[in-house]
Every structure is written in C-alpha cells, then in structure tokens.
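Can't paste images in this forum, so I'm doing it all in text. The chain is below; anyone willing to post the predicted structure tokens underneath?
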Amino acid sequence: MNRKIYQWAMVLTCSTLAACSANSKKNDSVTYLSDAEKVQAVVYVNKQTDKNQWMADTETLLRESIKGSPFTLQRQDNGWLVTAPARQSFNPDRPGLLLPAVLKPITQMAKALESSPDSAVLVLGHSDLARNEKVSYDLSKDRATAVASIFRLSGLNGYRMSQLAMGSSHTLPTKRSAADNDRVEIIVVPTAYKQDVMAVYNPAYQRQLALSQTK
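Text version of the structure:
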C-alpha cells in the first residue's frame, strides 16, 4: 500500500516538473518590452494615427478648395500634390500671369491651409524642354512666384511656405503631352516632413539656377 502511494507521488511530482519545464520554455520564447520600448511603441502608433487623420482632413479641404477648377489632386508619399496646368491657369500672352478663373481655388486652398498649423506648402514651377535653360528657369520661377504670392497674402509664411523654380528638370513621362510639363505643383505635407521634401527637390533646383546663370 505504501509502495503504491509512493509510486503515485513520484508520478505526480514528475508531471508537475514537466509542466513547469514546458511553461519555462514557452515563456523563454516570449519577448518582453522594456518600459522605454513600450512608450516608443505607443508614440509610434499615435504618430501614425495622427498622420492618417491629417491625410484624411487635408484631402477633404483640398478637394473642396479646387472643386470645379482645372487643378488635379493626387496622393504623393507623405502628403498631397495639387497640379495646376499652365495652359488653363496662366495667360497665354503673359505666361507668368495667373488667369482670373484660378485665383479663387488657389485663394481657397491658401486660406484653408493657413488655418491648418500642422500643414506646410512647397510650390514648384515647371516648364518644358522646348526653351533654353535661362528662359525655362525664369518662366518656372515667375509661375511659382505667382502662385506662392497668394499663399503668402493669405498668411502662410515662414517655414511653412517655400517655392522653387525647377525649370525643365522634372519633365513628365514621354507618353504625356509635352505641354503638360508647363505646370505648377503645390505639394502639401505635414510640417514635420517639409524638410525631407525640400531635400528631394533642392539639388535639381540648384542645378537649374546655375544653368540659368551661364552665358
């Protein structure tokens, strides 16, 4: 009788030890985050949520602003890209002068973004390859300035507002019409990303500036 009790005790002990060992091995496969890592994870999730909300809110105000205009809107990386085709936005006799019909959508956009402190704007002037470098650069500069001036008059200034003349450095794919290269692009991004966007376009801008100054 005592022998049987002893045997059952041994079996129970071994079973318990085996279960503990299995739990131990199972726990060893689990990675536990430190408090600092937990904070970082929460911050990342919050930032992603904030960015997604910004994208949604900004899309709404931009679509509302340009409704009925010749402008187009598309998502670009961390922001939005509004394109103003030169043929429908600028005076053909004075190619650096905006047409009256597009002043309203640009103004609406500028006022809406001025009221959005987390938004920054980069205006890019573009032209096609048919002109020489100096003419191309000067025209793209005049067009960028014409659009950017409306944003500045609406109160969007300082770090939140920049403009660059790109000349013919960023032509569109060849399947598009060459005339489509004559355009102004308005890039709208969260303020935190503006420096990154500037870094993408600034090298080409500097090359165009240098080429426009050569004789």
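Residues 1-28, 41-45 have pLDDT under 50 and may be disordered. The beta strands are 72-76, 79-85, 119-126, 161-165, 183-190.
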